Amino acid sequence: MKIPYLSTPIYYPNSMPHVGHLYSTLIVDVWKRASKLFEVPSYFTTGLDEHGQKVAQAAAANGYSPLEHVNALSQDFIEFFQKYNIEWDFWVRTTRRDHEHAVHAIWKALKDRGYIYKGNYSGWYSISDETYLTQKPEQESDNIVWREEECYYFKLSAFEDRLKKFYRDNPHFVYPKKRYNEAMGFLRQGLKDFVVSRPRDRLHWGIQVPDDPQQIIYVWVDALTNYISAAGYPNKSYDNYWPGKHVLGKDILKFHAIYWPAMLLAADLPMPEQLLIHGWWLNGDAKISKSLGNAVPLDELVRKYQVDGIRYFLIRGIELGDDGEFREELVKTIVHSDLANKYGNIFLRMLGLIELQFGGKLPDEFNSIRNKEAEALKKQVEKLQASVEKFIQHPETINRYADIFLQSIVMLNDYFQNNKVWGIEQKEQQAASLYFLMDIFKKITILVSPIMPETAQVVMKILGYNEVHMKHFDTRLTRSFISERPMLFPKIS
Ligand code: MSP
Asked: Are 57 and 14 in contact (CB under 8 A)?
């Protein structure tokens, strides 16, 4: 059986990770956790793109060998992601032997089929983007230099028609539509063969071309291959996972939408299932990036809004595909309004009432609640569950999932308010209402646990469960609450 597979891009370890890296990785983590919750198998890969000039330069600038440098950065990235409770299945490192083996295998497949040939190249080259420019730059800089060298080419031009057909036949291949159209635009402009190796004296930190010690494989061919090497390619069993879907940022669309599919067609391997293209987190008008050094320090935000506050903000604060600003004010607004005022507060109020009226323990016997508003609330929880299940199949629906979570919490608050649950005089009636609402709260918590795993743990523990699991979804509440009153998302004034 094929296991659903979702990857993040692999990150350049040329400086410390930031919120842009966290975002792709978080989307896949939420998907992985949702899959796990519903016992759907899943495969989540992320990691580092360790070769290339930029990485070698960063290592040299710090006085390290490239390998020492990437070993240290790999640890830094792992710790960074672990802090946000990211749980991948496979940590990619392009310096791994098995990855190199896979790159050699795909290279040989392309060469044997006649899609790689030797030639010469000269042109304007951007060091920071590790790519040749298509046009002469307006002005020269240390970053943009003229180059001439012997190299291998990949016959991209041979795939123009096949890719056009593939795109026409697969209108949902790239999400969102505007990025699909952008990919079509690349195809309409026409495809030129591209350089897939560099002379060793230009680039030493990379994987050698098989049987040509003078040439090093271009970093994008190396990097893109991670999506199949992480699945075990060239071992046949790689098709337990492949083809998969890719989550990535809009700046690397062309590599994923054109180069990678062409390489796969050339090697006669299956195409990816889908590309999910997200926008950028901005600081002011500028993309947050290591080169600009404009990343917002996350540690302090985590201290104030907690890991789950940041996770929630990254999902809620941007529509997948759009750009959005990453600023403390915005984090604060969303965390306070959705999580502190609505989610955390209703829990506290219910716990407080149970404590006050029933000494922390609801009576065992009472009638169940039946009224229109209660039915609507139950329906809403079903809608939330359906949205999680849909998200597992269609990760591009992540925002809808978060929206429906919020709607559910709003409805729960409204019920509490409209029915003045705190003032119900008949005790049995009040107990029944509280039981009903707390059960709804439990269900919402289980369903939002992929986005807020730590919070869900805390809540479930208070409700008497030792784990967050769907098996507790329909079980009766213990009704013996710990007389603890947690501030789930304390407000920062
Ligand atoms: N190594 C290549 C990717 C190879 S994938 C086969 C690379 N690395 S990167 O570290 O520069 O960027 C990795 C990803 O981070 C990209 O998808 C990029 O869009 C994303 N982000 C980097 N900064 C970002 C923001 N400020 N906002 C959102 N994502 C951005 O490119």
From this structure: yes
Residue 47, helix vs strand vs coil: strand
Classify domain 5-295 at the CATH topology level. Rossmann fold (3.40.50)
Domain boundaries, the chain: 5-295, 327-472
CB of residue 280 inside a 6 A radius of ligand 1: yes
Burial (CB count within 10 angstroms: exposed 0-12, middle 13-18, buried 19+), residue 448: buried
Which residues are CB-neighbours of 417 under 8 A, at least 6 positions away? none
HEC assignment per residue over 194-219: EECEEECCCCCCCCEECCEEEEEECH
Please write the tens of the pLDDT for every residue from 332-370: 999 999 999 999 999 999 999 999 999 988 887 777 899
Edge-to-edge order in the sheet of strand 174-175: 90-93, 43-48, 5-11, 245-249, 274-278, 174-175
pLDDT at residue 455, rounded to an integer: 98
Question: Model confidence over 293-316: pLDDT tens digits?
Answer: 777 789 999 999 999 999 999 999
**Is residue 292 pLDDT above 90, yes or no?**
no
Give the residue among 285, 271, 274 at the shortest CA–CA distance from 246: 274
What single letter denotes the amino acid at residue 394? Answer: H
- Output the CA 10–ligand 1 centroid distance in Å: 8
Hey, which of 49, 130, 264 would you mutate to test ligand 1's pocket, going by the most ligand atoms within 8 Å of its Cβ? 49
Dump pLDDT digits (tens) for 175-215. 999 999 999 999 999 999 999 999 998 888 999 999 999 99
- Residue 323 three-state SS: coil
148 φψ region: left (φ > 0), alpha (ψ -120 to 50), beta (else): beta
- For residue 368, what are its two tokens? 């169940």
Distance (Å) from CA 353 to ligand 1 centroid: 48
CB 7 within 8 A of CB 247: yes
Structure tokens given for 20: 């842009």
- Which residue, among 241, 220, 247, 217, has the nearest Cα to 229 in the 3D structure? 241
Ligand 1 atom nearest residue 295's Cα: 26
* Ligand 1 pocket test, candidate residues 6, 23, 48, most atoms within 8 A of CB: 23
Is the pLDDT confidence value at 492 over 90?
no
Q: Is the CB of 9 under 6 A from ligand 1?
A: yes
d(CA 187, CA 164): 7
468 has pLDDT over 80:
yes
- SS (HEC) of 70-118: HHHHHHHHHHHHHHCCCCCCEEEECCCHHHHHHHHHHHHHHHHCCCEEE
**Does residue 213 have a cis bond before it (omega within 30 degrees)?**
no
pLDDT above 90: residue 118: yes
Domain 327-472: assigned CATH number: 1.10.730.10
